[in-house]
C-alpha cells in the first residue's frame, strides 16, 4: 500500500506528502525544550550579562552600561596581545597538523603488513582526555624529572637541564606540540578518507602518460584531497582558537603572559578578576570572531571545490 | 627499497604516537624514589604496583573538596585552616 500525495493534511490544512507534521513536532518537543534550556538560554543570558557591569567583588551594585564593556575590552592592550598570540598559536597548530596528518595518511594508505596495527595505535592520542593529555605533557616538560630533559641530556643535545615551559620564547611552541599530538589522529583519519576515495584509474592513466611519483602526487592526490583539507582546516582552526585546557594546565597563561591567549583571557577576566560583564563581552567577541572566520573559510575554500 | 622505506616510516610514526604514552605507562609502575631519579629510568628497575594500589584502595569513596582535604597528610584533617573574618558565627 502506498500513501497518495496530497491525501494527508498538516497543521494549516497544507498537504503533507510523507509524514504527519503535527505529531512529528510533538515528538521533537521534549528535545527542543532541553535545547532551549541548556543551549539557547545561556547564550542569550550571557549576552544580557555583557551589558551590565557585573563584578562579584561588588555584588550589590550592578549598573546597566550598554556597550561599555565591549569598549573597555577593546581598549585593553592585553586583549590585543592575546589576539595576536591566539593567531600565531592557531597558525602553528593548523600548519603542523596538516603536514603531519598528510604524511601519516599517506603511510596508512599503503598496503603493507602491520598497517592495521598502526591504524589502531593512531587512536591512542585521540582516546586520551584533554586534561590527562595536559598533565602528561606537563610531566614530560618538567624541569627536574621530565622525560624531555632526560632524553635530550642523555643524547647530549643539552648540557644542563632546561626549564622548558619557563622560557617565554618556547612556551607557545611546546603547548602547540601537545595540542598537535592530540589532534593529529582525527585529521589523519579525515585525510585518509579523502585518499581512499581517489579512483585508482587516475593513477594508472597518469602512469601511462609517464608522470613520476612527485607529479602524480601534486596533480592528482593534492587536488583530490581539497575537501578533506578544507574540513581539517576549518575544524582545527576553531579548535585551536577556543582551546583552553592545555593553557590552564601547563602554564596558566605564563610565564609573564607568554601564553596568555584569548580563551585564557576570558577565563582570567571572568573567574580570576570576577568581572562577569567584561568576561561575557569577551566571550561574545570570541564567538563572533570564530563564527565569521569559519564562515569566511567555508566561502573561500568551499568555492574552489 | 619500498619495504625499507615503509618500515622506517612506520617506526617514526609509532615513536611519535606512542612515546609520550609509553613514558606515562613506564612512570606509573615506578615508585616515588625511582620516578624522581636523574637521569630518568626509561624502564622501571623496581616495578611496583603501589600507585595503582593507592588509587583502588583510597579510603574515601567520594572525593570532594572537603574529603580530599581531610585525607591530606599536610593539612592533617584540618578542615578549615583559614577562617574568613567576614564570615559571621
Task: Outline the structure in words.
The complex is a heterodimer of chains A (305) and B (89). Chain A folds into 2 domains: 8-49, no CATH class; 71-303, MetI-like fold. The model of chain A has no long low-confidence stretch (mean pLDDT 86). Chain A has helices at 21-49, 68-75, 77-109, 115-127, 130-140, 147-154, 171-196, 200-208, 213-224, 226-241, 245-251, 262-272, 276-303; strands spanning 8-9, 15-16. Chain A has a two-stranded antiparallel ribbon. Chain A is built from 13 helices and 2 strands, in the order ββααααααααααααα. Chain B has a domain at 2-51. In chain B, 49% of the residues lie in helices and 0% in strands. Chain B has helices at 2-28, 32-35, 50-56, 65-70. The longest helix of chain B is centred in the N-terminal third of the chain and has 27 residues, at 2-28. The mean pLDDT of chain B is 74. The interface between A and B is medium-sized, with 26 and 20 residues.
Concise description?
Chain A is mainly α and 305 residues long. Helix content of chain A is 69%, strand content 1%.
Q: Just name the CATH architecture of the largest domain in chain A.
A: Orthogonal Bundle
Q: Count the DSSP helices of chain A.
A: 13
Which two protein chains have the largest interface (Cβ within 8 Å of the partner's Cβ), and how many residues from each? A-B, 26 and 20 residues
Uncertain residue ranges of chain B? none
The Cα radius of gyration of chain A reads 25 Å
Short descriptors:
heterodimer, A: 305 residues, MetI-like fold, two-stranded antiparallel ribbon, 13 helices, 2 strands, B: mainly alpha
Write the layout of secondary structure elements.
The complex is a heterodimer of chains A (305) and B (89).
Chain A lengths: L7 E2 L5 E2 L4 H29 L18 H8 L1 H33 L5 H13 L2 H11 L6 H8 L16 H26 L3 H9 L4 H12 L1 H16 L3 H7 L10 H11 L3 H28 L2
Antiparallel strand pairs in A: 1-2
Chain B lengths: L1 H27 L3 H4 L14 H7 L8 H6 L19
Amino acid at each position: 500500500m502506498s500513501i497518495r500525495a496530497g491525501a494527508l493534511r498538516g497543521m494549516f490544512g497544507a498537504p503533507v506528502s510523507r509524514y504527519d507534521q503535527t505529531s512529528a513536532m510533538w515528538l521533537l518537543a521534549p528535545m527542543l525544550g532541553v535545547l532551549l534550556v541548556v543551549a539557547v538560554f545561556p547564550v542569550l543570558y550571557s549576552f544580557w550579562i555583557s551589558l551590565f557591569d557585573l563584578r562579584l567583588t561588588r555584588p550589590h551594585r550592578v549598573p546597566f552600561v550598554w556597550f561599555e564593556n565591549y569598549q573597555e575590552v577593546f581598549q585593553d592592550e592585553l586583549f590585543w596581545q592575546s589576539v595576536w598570540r591566539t593567531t600565531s598559536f592557531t597558525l602553528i597548530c593548523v600548519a603542523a597538523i596538516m603536514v603531519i596528518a598528510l604524511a601519516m595518511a599517506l603511510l596508512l594508505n599503503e598496503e603493507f603488513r602491520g598497517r592495521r596495527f598502526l591504524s589502531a595505535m593512531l587512536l591512542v592520542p585521540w582516546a586520551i582526555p584533554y586534561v590527562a593529555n595536559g598533565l602528561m605533557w606537563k610531566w614530560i616538560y618538567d624541569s627536574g624529572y621530565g622525560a624531555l630533559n632526560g632524553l635530550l641530556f642523555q643524547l647530549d643535545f643539552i648540557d644542563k637541564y632546561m626549564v622548558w615551559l619557563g622560557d617565554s620564547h618556547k612556551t607557545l611552541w611546546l603547548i602547540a606540540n601537545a595540542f598537535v599530538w592530540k589532534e593529529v589522529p582525527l585529521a589523519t583519519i579525515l585525510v585518509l578518507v579523502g585518499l581512499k576515495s581517489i579512483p585508482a584509474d587516475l593513477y594508472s592513466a597518469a602512469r601511462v602518460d609517464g608522470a613520476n611519483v612527485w607529479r602524480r602526487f601534486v596533480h592528482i592526490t593534492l587536488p583530490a584531497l581539497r575537501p578533506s583539507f578544507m574540513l581539517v582546516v576549518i575544524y582545527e582552526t576553531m579548535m585551536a582558537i577556543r582551546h583552553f585546557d592545555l593553557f590552564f594546565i601547563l602554564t596558566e597563561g605564563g610565564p609573564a603572559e607568554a601564553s596568555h591567549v584569548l580563551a585564557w583571557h576570558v577565563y582570567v577576566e571572568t573567574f580570576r578578576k570576577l568581572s562577569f560583564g567584561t568576561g561575557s563581552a569577551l566571550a561574545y567577541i570570541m564567538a563572533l570572531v570564530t563564527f565569521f572566520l569559519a564562515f569566511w573559510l567555508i566561502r573561500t575554500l568551499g568555492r574552489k571545490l | 627499497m619500498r619495504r625499507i622505506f615503509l618500515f622506517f616510516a612506520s617506526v617514526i610514526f609509532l615513536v611519535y604516537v606512542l612515546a609520550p604514552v609509553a613514558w606515562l605507562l613506564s612512570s606509573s609502575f615506578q615508585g616515588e624514589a625511582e620516578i624522581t631519579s636523574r637521569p630518568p629510568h626509561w624502564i622501571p628497575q623496581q616495578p611496583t604496583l603501589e600507585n595503582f594500589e593507592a588509587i583502588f584502595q583510597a579510603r574515601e569513596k567520594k572525593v570532594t573538596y572537603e574529603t580530599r582535604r581531610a585525607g591530606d597528610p599536610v593539612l592533617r584533617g584540618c578542615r578549615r585552616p583559614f577562617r574568613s573574618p567576614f564570615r559571621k558565627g
